[in-house]
Amino acid sequence: LRAGLVPPVLTNNLGVSVGGTLSVAGLGIASFREGCQGDNVLEMEVVTGAGEVVTCSPDRERDLFDAVRSGLGLCGVITRATIRLVPAKPMVRTFYLLYDDLSSLMKDSQRLMTEERFGYLESWCVPCPQGFRKVAGVPTPFAQWFYPLHASLEFDPASPPDDRALTAGLSHYRSVHVEDRTMAEFALRLEPLFELWKRGGYWAAAHPWMEVVMPWESTASYITAILANLPPHLLGGGHILLWPSKGSTSKVPLFMKPKSEFVMGFGILPGLPPQAMAVAGPMLAKASDLAMKMGGKRYPSGWLEFDEARWRAQFGEMWEPLRAAKARFDPDGVLHPGLVPL
Question: Is the full-model pTM beyond 0.90?
Answer without folding.
Answer: yes
